[in-house]
Amino acid sequence: MPRTAAPLLTSPIPRVADSDRRRTSASVVLRSVLEHGPVARSTIARLTGLSPASVTDYCARFAELGLIRESAVPRRSKGVGRPHLPVDLDDSRFVVGGVHVAVPHTTVALLDLRGRVVARRETEHERTDPALVLARAADGLAALLAAAPGSRPLGVGFAAGGWVDRDSGTVVEHPLLGWREVPVREVLGAHTGLPVHVDGHARSLVNAERLFGQARGSRSLLHLFAGNVVDAAFSTNDVVHHGPRSQAGAIAHLPVPGGTEPCDCGRVGCLQAELSELTLCRRAREAGITDGMNPMHVVGAAAAGDPVAVRLLRERSRRVGRAVGLLLDVLNPEQVVVTEVGIRHRADCLAALREEVGPGRAETVSPISFPDSVLAVAAGSVALDVVYRDPLAASPEAI
Q1: Which phi and psi (to 5°) does residue 230 adopt?
Q2: Calpha distance 399→280 (Å, rounded)
Q3: Can you give the pTM of this predicted structure?
Q4: Which of 129, 161, 156 is nearest to 142 (CA)?
Q5: Helix, strand counts (H, E) of the chain
Q6: Residue 236, class by beta-carbon neighbours within 10 Å (0-12 exposed, 13-18 middle, 19+ buried)?
């Protein structure tokens, strides 16, 4: 009786394509230069597990693209032979643009490859019509680039609160701005002629922390953003979770224990209603501390010794701490980063937040690493994340 051929064994795990391997390898090499530069190629090989030949090849390609350069000062090897020439980022040539649309204003900025803000401007909204806001943002970017003629833009990052879909490049819904299904990538791309990358600001700040901040190296990271919009983002193993249509992190209507603030949804004590800067400023106006909508005026009054302003900021930080506690219970991250105006500027607010989180977990919570440039860094990091994930496609020659 003839033998039948044994069936081919198949794996449910798809094989990684060669192009994906190259992209991943290029990413880890450039990230190693970012984190450790000036650094010898042999050290990069040891840190990444790649072969010395592969590291040398990637470094040569990055140098050709203008992303890295050899250090002017060689390092003597421990044995005989030629001294090592370490490599480092070349942060003198390329920038990315950033556009962050907040409720009261738009921030436009230029960032270098290290995530540092090299130019920035804010424009108050005359109206929040998306066509007008995005056109003015493009004009602002053009002005910044004209004032920095030696800088070559790799692309533009856009960030905002609300529901922002990264894959389609669309602001699906931002109730406070009145935006629905706004094709940001298409509109900004037409105005600027540059690649445009779009994401929510909570997720973009996770990427900023992952690349440039104190949370670099964390295996899991939670970020809570408490501005006029309140949302969150979560990453594990260097990957930010987006969910279908990038709707992950929509926490505006989670209940805050002990909350009393009415919400537009008809309930009381929803997270955004309790923690929004709009609520903080309204309470400050009712107390006669300020007559405006700028939370920094409350911070200034507290710094000047106003006890009511101090109380309002501490109470808000405690409510943020309760929200962090809820998210810690669900996600149990290694580290938590919070963007909130009180803890960015006052040690007592950070202490109040950590006290509410409770002993044993309080030290996992820290303020955002970019207290003076949050919105600019959020926007630029959308584009910089793309650069570091696929650096061989990042230069103007490759676009």
Answers
A1: -120, 120
A2: 44
A3: 0.91
A4: 156
A5: 13, 15
A6: middle
Does the bond joining 7 to the residue before it have cis omega, within 30 degrees of 0? no
Tokens of 384: 């910089």
SS3 of 40, please?
A: coil
**Tens of pLDDT along 346-359?**
999 999 999 999 99
| Tens-place pLDDT, residues 277-290 | 999 999 999 999 99
- Which tokens belong to 22? 């190259």
Angle at the Cα of 322 from the Cα atoms of 299 and 266, rounded to 5 degrees: 90
Distance separating alpha carbons of residues 311 and 300, to the nearest angstrom: 13
Q: Is 48 within 8 Å of 37 (Cβ atoms)?
A: no
d(Cα 375, Cα 378) in Å, to the nearest integer? 5
What is residue 243's DSSP assignment? -
Question: Coil, helix or strand for 271?
Answer: helix
The three-class DSSP label of residue 255 is strand
SS3 state of residue 215: coil
Length of the chain: 399
- C-alpha–C-alpha distance, residues 92 and 112, integer Å: 8
Residue in the block written with tokens 């009054």: 301
Query: Phi and psi dihedrals of 197, rounded to 5?
Result: -120, 135
Domains of the chain, each with CATH number or no CATH: 27-75+85-89 (1.10.10.10), 94-205+375-393 (3.30.420.40), 218-367 (3.30.420.40)
Token pair, residue 228, equals: 């006029």
Residue 284, classed as helix, strand or coil, is helix
Cβ contact 367:353 at 8 Å = no
Residue in the block written with tokens 């109040």: 352
Q: How far apart are CA 211 and CA 90, in angstroms?
A: 16
Q: How many CB atoms lie within 10 A of CB 254?
A: 18
pLDDT surpasses 50 at 30: yes
Q: Which residues contact 177 (CB under 8 A, 6 or more apart)?
A: 101, 103, 128, 130, 160, 162, 171
